[in-house]
Amino acid sequence: MEPTLEELLLAYKARFPQEVRDLAETFCNATTRLASAPANAPRALTDEMRHRAAAHGIRGEDLAAAVAQYTRIEALAESSHRQKSRD
After folding, report:
1. What CA dihedral angle connects 41, 55, 23 and 46, to 10 degrees?
2. Residue 39 neighbours by CB distance under 10 Å
3. How far apart are the first and last CA of the chain?
4. How many degrees, rounded to 5, is the angle at CA 45 between CA 21 and CA 36?
5. Domain ranges of the chain
6. Alpha-carbon gap, residue 70 to 85, rounded angstroms
7. 78: which residues sit within 8 A by CB, 6+ positions away?
8. What is the DSSP secondary-structure string of 29-73?
9. CB proximity list for 61: less than 8 A, separation 6 or greater
10. pTM for the structure as a whole
């Protein structure tokens, strides 16, 4: 069974410190996912985001993991919203 949106959010908050979440969410909000791409397709970090992460002492791998998890949260939220609008 797939985790709920609430479960994903709780796991995301538990796994990543606020500073990592802020950078991940900033990156996700600044990039556009193509409509043709799968909803949970990974987003490659830009060099700028890697440098910003490093400036804050955040490993690029940790930021990439946070971005991947946040992308999954976004996809589930969008799917839930579409489902509610159909009902």
Report:
1. -30
2. 13
3. 22
4. 100
5. 5-31+42-86
6. 23
7. 39
8. HHS---TTS-TT---PPPHHHHHHHHHTT--HHHHHHHHHHHHHH
9. none
10. 0.81
Question: ∠56-62-67 over CA atoms, to 5°?
Answer: 100
**Is the separation of the CB atoms in 24 and 31 below 8 Å?**
no
Tokens standing for residue 52: 């910003």
Please tell me whether residue 87 adopts helix, strand or coil conformation. Answer: coil
In the 8-state DSSP scheme, what is residue 25?
H
Q: Would you mind telling me the total number of residues written for the chain in this entry?
A: 87
The torsion angles phi and psi of 45, rounded to 5 degrees, stand at -70, 140
DSSP character at residue 16 = S
Q: pLDDT averaged over consecutive 10-residue blocks of the chain (87 residues)?
A: 91 97 89 54 78 94 94 87 75
Q: Which of 30, 75, 74 is nearest to 52 (CA)?
A: 30
